[in-house]
Amino acid sequence: MPELPEVEVVKRGLSQILEEHPIIDSIEFKRRDLREALPLKKAKLLEGAKVLSVERRAKYLILNTDKARILSHLGMTGTWRVAPRGEEREHDHIYINLQGGVRLAYRDPRRFGYFDIYTIEKHPKLERLGPEPWDEDFTADYLYQLMKTRTSPIKVALMDQAVVVGVGNIYASEALFRSGIRPTRKAATIKRAEAVLLRREILQVLEDAIAAGGSTISDFAQAGGDSGYFQNSFFVYGRAGLMCLKCKQNKIKESRLGGRSTFWCSKCQS
DNA sequence: ACACTAACCTGCAAGC
DNA sequence: TGCTTGCAGGTTAGTG
Predict the structure, then answer these.
(1) Which chain B nucleotides are covered by protein, judged by CB under 7 A?
(2) Active-site residue, A59 included
(3) What is the spatial distance, in angstroms and rounded to an integer, between the CA atom of A246 and the C1' atom of B10?
(4) For the segment A136-158, what is each residue's pLDDT rounded down to a tens digit?
(5) What global pTM score does this model have?
(6) What pLDDT is recorded for position A222?
């Protein structure tokens, strides 16, 4: 579910709630671990803490409080929702009980998500991330030079969070379609002009998706419970065998790259 | 150093 | 109908 746009949408939802209810009463863990152990002992640090801001870095959410920070990653099926105190659903693993009778509930059926509480400036998980798509460092030339060093398919390279953060399996296919670049191309064959186009289309597709509230395939929901609707704007993702919406002459192809389903139009992308 | 695969988990859909 | 298989938005340890 959650690539950069979905995480950004959740961030904005949480931010709004936490402005109204900034004080954490308590944190409850319903189990000991997701993919990794949950910080059971550190929860006490946050009792009575005031949430100062909510940030997104790559696909991670960061809640800054006056006592410690929270780092949250949604994995494949993670969601944060605003719920009344006392409401429990299957696969709820974490509750952040806020003063004022509401709680933030973290639900994650597959438990690929991550949650930690920390007091150092920068969490180790954030160390090896590339630039945000809108960073001034993420230039076409940076992308071009970096791609020249890669032997993997361009789509696999785009999904490498050390190259640029936030692009996952859906938006990699969509950005390459919009750029007219075949996902199977070796990254090193990308021309400078293509890098210019690709950088622009990455930003554009992410912006479009954020504006649409993200993409809801099955699990994703915004913090307030609404679905995103960018899935209605996919050109290629999940459209294998269907007619290309651009050229209207060719069926969308599907193959596997780096173990992930990949979609493209062999007429519109070369 | 880089590139690729398997593994982590649950749920659902397709195929037999 | 019921069982088996494969696949799903991500990340990372292990292997070559």
Answers:
(1) 2-12
(2) yes
(3) 36
(4) 999 999 999 999 999 999 999 99
(5) 0.96
(6) 77
